[in-house]
């Protein structure tokens, strides 16, 4: 797969590939640090350690050939949920001010 805005393979990185894979030619380095890491239910195979750190070394979700689409879809959903909650909060605050 050629490098593009959706896929990037950095074979010169000293950590490449940073996850065990039988298909290094399909390994996507675009999301070197997973943007879904902050989600409790990220959809990947992360394991929460006793230290509170999520160990994602067994997860290939963002590194798969379709990882870009999966990550972007999930981020859009999360951002939409944040916008909806913000709008509800603003509406409640407006209604509460009107009652005063």
UniProtKB/TrEMBL annotation:
InterPro entries: Zf-like. It comes from the Bacteria. Residues 6-83 form the Cysteine-rich small domain. This is Metal-binding protein.
């Amino acid at each position: 797969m050629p490098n593009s805005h959706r896929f990037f393979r950095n074979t010169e990185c000293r950590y490449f590939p940073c996850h065990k894979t039988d298909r290094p030619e399909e390994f996507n380095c675009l999301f070197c640090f997973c943007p879904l890491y902050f989600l409790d239910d990220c959809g990947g195979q992360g394991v929460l350690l006793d230290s509170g750190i999520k160990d994602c070394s067994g997860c290939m979700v963002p590194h798969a050939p379709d990882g870009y689409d999966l990550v972007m879809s999930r981020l859009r959903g999360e951002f939409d949920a944040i916008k909806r909650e913000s709008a509800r909060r603003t509406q409640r605050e407006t209604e509460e001010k009107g009652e005063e």
